[in-house]
């Protein structure tokens, strides 16, 4: 079985990649599997810049092929916020505080103007410089109160028309089938073998 290092500290993302890579017999490792502490300065201004910083930093440290995911929630009525700042929108990396801030910022905005999307950019790098980039997105709307316990991050506030429920009310399989991360991984996998065997 091949193993692939994903440059993430987010257990929610790690779980979703493990689920999605399972049929391909690829074992997913994350930063939690390595004892070396790796400091990553996510100071880019785009998802692509941040995903590249994560992949580059971890690959330089471990010397193995690395895949990174930078993702976030883009809300139209907030001019694209929280965007690349999604993880620390309310200050700390705290999902509940982020969700509460999002509801405050959107107070009084009617349902039809609460349109938003999740975005993921994946960047994979090999020590020889071979690079693979993929993107995914899913559209929805921001609810006025949280619903559901599954997923992570902003999922309880993200309404998905196709299933008529929040992202956090979907099963893992349903979320992965429509999510920004699932879409990005689908594109990634189309080119994965060529990149991996290069
Ligand atoms: O950088 P790593 O270590 O991978 O973990 P992170 O949580 O900091 O990840 P990002 O920098 O990509 O920030 C993404 C944030 O966007 C939100 N997010 C991303 N994907 C999500 C999803 O599938 N469902 C809900 N919220 C999501 C969530 O708040 C994440 O913390
Ligand atoms: Mg991050």
Automatic annotation (TrEMBL):
GO molecular function: ITP diphosphatase activity
Names of the cofactor(s): Mg(2+)
SUPFAM superfamilies linked to this entry: ITPase-like
Record's cofactor remark: Binds 1 Mg(2+) ion per subunit.
Annotated EC: 3.6.1.66
Keyword Oxidoreductase listed: no
Recorded catalytic activity of this chain's protein: ITP + H2O = IMP + diphosphate + H(+); XTP + H2O = XMP + diphosphate + H(+); dITP + H2O = dIMP + diphosphate + H(+)
Residue positions of the active site: 70
Pfam family, one: Ham1p_like
Record-given protein name: dITP/XTP pyrophosphatase
